[in-house]
Amino acid sequence: MKEYRIKILVFIAIAFANITLTYSQRVGGLPPASLINRILISDGPKGPIQGGESAVTDMLLMQDGWVYGSTKATWGAANCHLFRTDGEEVNHVLNLTAELPGQAAISDIISLDGRTIFGATSTYDDIFDDANNNYDGGHLFSFNTEANRLEDLGVISPGQGINCINIDTVRQLIYAITYPAGHLFSFNLSNKKIKDFGEVMTPWRVKDLGRVSWRGVPKVLMIDDAGTIYFSTYYRTEVEMSEQEKMKGGATSLSSLKGGRIYRLSPGDDKPVFTGAVIPTQTGMDSDPIYENGIASAIRAQDGGFWCGTINDGFLFKFEPSTSTVINKGKAFQYWNLKSLAYGGDGKLYMLGGRDEDNSWIMSYDPTIGSLECLGWPENTAQCSVICADKNGRIIIAENLRHSFMWVFDPGGMGK
Predict the structure, then answer these.
(1) Angle at the Cα of 231 (from 230 to 234), degrees rounded to 5?
(2) Residue 82 and residue 332: Cα distance in Å, rounded?
């Protein structure tokens, strides 16, 4: 009997070992040795960043050695914030909504001198979809990290949010794309003049799972050394129906959308023009109302040009502005949306991928040998929006949930 019990216990132990092994394979997580910290951004009901205010929208490494981040309000919350982290702790920097009432999201931040952050604001999609919308409009702002000083640069377009920005420091121009109207604007930092270059994307309203959004509006503005702005957008063509398709009193044509076209606006031009470059795409998908073919993320390549990640298809490609050339590097994983790109201390390009309401994956590309690799996820429920390298070359991964976490990923721990 005793021998029988021992056999049963051994069998149970083996069974549990197999279950654990199967689970670890299913999770597909990053090696524990590579994740050296996990930090909660929100501070609870009494803290400066409360639940619903900690969804991270962007991050920047600044000259003082801190990574600064921006947030948006979710689940009916009202406030958005600036914070900073060194990978060990999170410090609250600024409640932007307290300074600019009605702004529920910091949609984009950028810095070219490592001291001053330029940012843009927006609000909830359901406000834009309200016929009685009384939203003032998205603001441009600057924040000096050394002086801890905020400057409101004003509203770009009344009633419209701002989706993305970039800066031409030579000409002192901030470029911005409005949302959902999809207009390209410039703001002159010297004389505060605003110029509207017109619509670059006809608003494409989509309702999915009860939520309304506008697809196709450029998410990224790239700028080269000459001050030329590049972005991806759609163009719409009208296709005449055949006589058999027409119905009495109905439409006589169908709208056809073609996405992933890269346009440019050169200094002195009044209107963007098509470069002739088209981003990598899975063909035949543009007719799907949920499909959005564009550039989700971009970063300057160390040998020139830009590395870019696509929205729905998740391709990594290189764009060479001087020749309007697109070089497709393929996919590291059969997944949507390369949301964010960052260089690690090892010289590799790290990529954050995954749909907004699904698991987020970390991938890498080695420019020296041209290899793509899918590394895993920080946790099997993590829904992240942005990554950024810290001063030590580690990758900060940030969530965009009601209670958001950050993970510090050390590429050097991948082989341990």
Answers:
(1) 140
(2) 32
**Assigned token pair, 407:** 């993970």
How far is the CA of 210 from the CAs of 113, 149, 206, 213, in angstroms?
A: 42, 40, 10, 10
Which of the two residues, 74 and 209, has the higher pLDDT score? 74
Neighbours of 255 (CB within 10 A): 11
Distance of CA 2 to the CA centre of its chain: 61
Residue with tokens 């390209």: 184
Kindly report, residue by residue over 179-214, the tens digit of the pLDDT: 999 999 999 999 999 999 999 998 888 888 788 999
Cα(186)–Cα(140) distance, rounded to whole angstroms? 11
The CATH code belonging to domain 55-199 is 2.130.10.10
The DSSP code sequence of 237-302 is EEEEPPTTT--TTS-SEEEEEEEEEEEEE-TT-SS-EEEEEE----TT-TTSTT---SEEEEEE-T
Q: Where in the sequence of the chain do the CATH 2.130.10.10 domains occur?
A: 55-199
139-144 vs 149-155, strand pairing mode: antiparallel
DSSP code string of 97-114: HHHSTT--EEEEEE-SSS
